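**User:**
My hope is that you can spare some time for a protein that puzzles me. This is the protein in question:
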Amino acid sequence: MKTIGQNIAYYRKEKGITQEQLSEICGVSPQAVSKWENDISCPDITLLKPLARVFGVSVDKLLDDGAEPATTLSENEKETGKVLKIRVLDGKDTVNLNLPVALIEMLLKCGTLSDSLSFNGKKNIFSSIDFNKMLELVSLGVFGKILEVDSEDGEHVEIYIE
């Protein structure tokens, strides 16, 4: 995995800037830049934006450790939109549903969403979920874990928007 120091060294060299020049731009000593690049210390958080601007990258890119995310979207999913992920746990079984939002919208319009979802033959797990509200959250740009439900039967349901 890459470190912020490795990223600073890479982008600095890519721009053809010396450690001394970068230190002048940031208002720190050349030794400070050297310590960053050797992972002895990190730049102050207030320097992240100026560093990113100097290098022509985002702060996110400057901090990127190169690790791949645990979940990625395929090109097809990027085109069709967000995915509603539902995880149901009942103590011994776990079921993960990945439902494209477009599919949920279609099933809601047809009035068949509640008939389409079940877990171990039980449909009541999903009856407490307001899928119209979920779609409203999607339209507002909300993502991440948005709901956890524990049913009377001991099932645990988690819903994520990605």
About this structure: The two ends are 25 Å apart (CA to CA). The beta strands are 83-89, 94-100, 144-150, 156-161. The chain is about 45% helix and 15% strand.
